[in-house]
C-alpha cells in the first residue's frame, strides 16, 4: 500500500480523539457531554474534556463558541452537538 493511500484513509474510530471544550455551569456543555459520551462510548472512541476557564489559549480561541467539539484536534462543531453528525465524522471518510 502506498504512503499516499494510507494518508488519505480515515483513522479507525478507536484511533480517534474527541475533545469537548467546555466551562463549568454551562447547560449547553452538559448537553454536549451527554452526546459525546454516548457516541464515543458506542464507537470505542477516546474522548477528553478541557475547561476553557483554565486554558488561556482555548479561551482566546473559543470563548464565544462553547461548547466546542474537536475531532483529532480540528473543530467539528460548536454550541449544539448532533449525534448523527458526530458519529459520521468518526466513522466516515
From TrEMBL:
InterPro entries in the record: Glutaredoxin-like, Glutaredoxin-like_YDR286C, Thioredoxin-like_sf
Pfam families, per database record: Glrx-like (PF05768)
Superkingdom per UniProt: Bacteria
Name of the featured protein: Glutaredoxin family protein
Native organism taxonomy: Bacteria, Bacillati, Actinomycetota, Actinomycetes, Kitasatosporales
